[in-house]
Amino acid sequence: MQHRHGWKRWLTAIAAGLMLAGTALVPGRADGASAAREQRAAMTASAARGHMASAAPVSWADLQRRYRGVFVLRAVASGGRRVALTFDDVPDPRYTPLVLNVLKRKRVRATFFVVGSRAAKHPALMRRIVSEGHAVGNHTYSHPELPKLSLGQVEREIERTGETIRATAGFEPAMIRPPYGDIRPAQLEWARSRGYIVVNWDVDSQDWRQIPAGVVLRNAVKGLRPGSIILMHAGGGAGQNLYGTVNALPRLIDQLRAKGYELVTVPELLHIPERKRKPG
Fold it and tell me: What's the pLDDT at 130?
């Protein structure tokens, strides 16, 4: 869904942060020289969404170490120069078909993180995603901020989406991507107990900012390395313009291949199952 950023909200959130102590996690990257810049940017984004960072924020890198194999930012050992393109907030009849057209033309398989309410409205697009060989993951049913939900609410969001995807794809995904990348340790414990793998990213194209294709392209290759997971979007909020993504994608694929990268799905990159195992 459309990310919510604005100067008025940002200033309000920062002012509130001086008065209240919050519990949400502050996303922190683990990608070398750019880690500090991305940590500061993520903290700003988190504040702008109304999350107040605690005195000792838990970074994404810390979570990846603590929940090894359950919370993932990138492949540590990717087996060569392999990277994964991922697209959030699908299916969207405005942008998902355009992204799929590019991927088909370029013979690339990617990973799509599905919003359940959208899958219910656009089953034909879901079937196309799967039939063209792309991997799918669970991006909740209504795209809420998970740190604000109880465990029961999180469970309903994930399981309802899994059932909706099963109706069109024939299986329930093992991968979850929390909206905005935000998730609490207790929610990760729940995910681990249910056999899910939470997949975030280490490279953010920032295409949700409705930026031009050239900027999307620069962001998508900045900090890239073997094993990277690149965040992009093939769906947006009402009025959100993602043509920067659509126009950048062919050039991005060409650039990655020119640098010797192989583009694979997240399950291929991480050597994990796409389908959630049935209990028992």
Answer: 98
